[in-house]
Amino acid sequence: MAPLKLRLGSGIASDIRARLAVYPSDWTDGLHPRILPATVFIFTANLLPAIAFSSFMFSATNGEYGTTEVVLSTAICNLIWAVFAGQPMVIMGVTGPVALLTATIYGVCVKYSVVFLPFMFWSHAWAAVFHIILSITNACSIVKHTTRFTCETFEVLIATVYIVKGIEEITETPLSTPDSQKMSLHLLGVLLGLGTLLVMQFLSTARRWILFRNWTRAILADYCAPLTVILFTCLTLIPTLKDVGVPTLPAPPRFETSSGRAWLVEFWTLPVGWIFAAIVPGLILTCLFFFDHNVSAIMAQSPVFGLKKPTAYHYDFFVLGIATLICGFLGIPAGNGLIPQAPLHTKSLAKPISHSKLHHPAATNPPTAHTFTDPLTPPLAPPTGAHTPTPTTTSTPPAEYTDVLEQRLSNLLQSLLTLLFLTRPFLTALRAVPRPVLGGLFLFMGLGALSANTFFSRIVLLCTDPRLVPSRYEAAFGRWGKRTVNLFTLMQVAITAVTYWLSERAPTGVGLLFPLVILGLVPVRRWVLPRWFGKEVVEWLDDVGGDVGGNVGNAGGDEEEDWARREAVRHVEMEMGVGGKDDGGTGRHRARGDGGHDGDDGRVRSVGGA
After folding, report:
1. Peptide bond preceding 24: is omega within 30 degrees of 0, i.e. cis?
2. Which DSSP string do the residues of 153-183 spell out, in sequence order?
3. Closest listed residue to residue 219, CA positions, set 351, 345, 40
4. Does residue 107 form part of some domain?
5. In terms of DSSP H, where are the helices of 301-334?
6. Hey, which of 194, 350, 373, 419 would disulfide with 401, CB 3.0 to 4.6 Å?
7. For the chain (length 610 residues), average pLDDT per consecutive 10?
8. How far apart are CA 453 and CA 463, in angstroms?
9. Residue 462 to residues 377, 556, 564: CA-CA distances in angstroms?
10. What is the pLDDT of residue 348?
11. Whole-number Å distance between alpha carbons of 360 and 562
12. 126 shares a domain with 55
């Protein structure tokens, strides 16, 4: 066996050569009418979560990070990415895990009386060093071992955090509120938060309405979040409601830091001992970005989009390290690739392939084991006359989209629009947004993430009527037993619960470990789970639902068959006098009559529209 040769920087050099060849076309391909709606869509999809996270970070850091810092980080990271990165389709921003990690680091600084921003600078500086080391050693090729198991566990964790934070934003009242007014404030907060959630959910289904023209329904569905936030913000300006004193988004009246400090962090004031102590959070931030950013990049370049231009994983991770260092200098949170904004950006620039039904081996056979496409090696075409893959082979989903505008202009334009919101008129408008409305937005994002998650669908399966089990799981129950499938799900729930405890409830300092747990799921999935449950079981459960990155439709089962089974059970119950007056089945029938399934496919359309 030949010895392994490590060619330092070979991945970066290869990425640069490949992307330089198409760099001019990255700009000229953006001169297309489809760029404008895609720009507006991804701008709103990116700005609102950033504003929501800024509210949380302002409270978690006692005003050190706020609206200005989070929005500025979003704008700067996307400007850097649009101009200098290899793959401009990735959308950058401050993520939920970064907000959680920042809150934990702030708690450590308070406990040990360390100045927060200089310590964060050195954490970012060490992270930049680790980013550069990983990129020049071609470490990003390891990401090909990441599977659905790790991604969906991470997604359920973040969705849980969103939901909990949303409830906290809705129910929180300022300490200065008089006792006589607290009940009114609580009730109004609940009404605003739940109203925001329900209206967003309602508008996100507009594509299935029969009212209005098609373009009107598309606008209502795609921009359900900003339209709802504007609506409920305007409602709170009514004098009667305004007098209640609903807490609003903390933002400065003009472009300045939230605490009034200078923009350049005085990093040289930190004691030497704490400079080296910052290696620990720097390493943890690197682990978080190594997983989170690369997964978002892979999802933005999923095979279902059929992209033509080359990838640049190693070079992009190098650029991410430089962007992290710049954020440290300015005293703003570091951004990285966003999920689901990155794949949504690609999707908004593509044309769907008009097939009545995309054929996939999983439609007739048990789903095949899915792993990410190797970032360094292009997928090979199947050999002529190849047989249908067995349940233990790796599958690549077919392209569902075509004619993707792979360019830099939409990312550049949306980052400039984000910068525009740091001017006085827009900051004034942001200061009027009620925090319970942002709580409703958090709930919408959390529930939306769960609705298209096959891990969550298996949690629901624990309590599902045996007669209504989706067909894609019936085969697994018959082959390996319901107990095996449920044990796998419960084990995944336990991992998620432990990770949530580390990120939210663990003692100060211990919470820093939660990104390491997420990253540790990769070797657990690869080597531990096959020993516990069997390789075939794990590979089947890890792939049920389709490709990571959006192909969640019919993989592993036929939704038509599932719907028919539910209707049959409903009719039998009606004939036997059981639940005869229940309109649940009729409601589902009407929903399906619009052309959408009431199963996974319908839910994915709803989330995608958001």
Report:
1. no
2. HHHHHHHHHHHHHHHHHHH---TTS-HHHHH
3. 40
4. yes
5. 313-330
6. 350
7. 64 94 93 88 86 88 93 95 93 89 92 95 97 93 82 86 88 70 83 93 91 90 89 89 82 89 94 95 93 87 87 94 96 90 86 56 37 38 36 52 89 94 90 90 86 85 86 80 89 92 79 83 88 86 50 36 46 46 41 40 36
8. 17
9. 39, 18, 21
10. 85
11. 18
12. yes
Q: Which two tokens stand for residue 89?
A: 């389709």
Among 360, 449, 491, 455, which residue's Cα sits nearest to residue 147?
Answer: 455
Do residues 494 and 593 share a domain? Answer: no
- Structural domains counted in the chain: 2
Q: Is residue 218 part of a domain?
A: no
Handedness of CA 26, 32, 37, 40 (dihedral sign): positive
Q: Which two tokens stand for residue 202?
A: 């309602």
DSSP 401: E
Q: Is 352 left (phi over 0), alpha (psi -120 to 50) or beta?
A: beta
Domain of residue 548 covers 10-172+247-352+406-557
Helix (H, G, I), strand (E, B) or coil at 394: strand
Residues 427 and 468 in one domain: yes
> pLDDT tens digits, residue range 181-201?
778 888 888 999 999 999 999
The 10s digit of each residue's pLDDT in 75-128 is 999 999 999 999 999 999 998 889 889 998 999 999 999 999 999 999 999 999
* DSSP structure string for 411-463: HHHHHHHHHHTTSHHHHHHHTTSBHHHHHHHHHHHHHHHHHT-HHHHHHHHTT
Q: What are phi and psi of 336, to 5 degrees?
A: -150, -175
Q: What is the pTM of this model?
A: 0.76
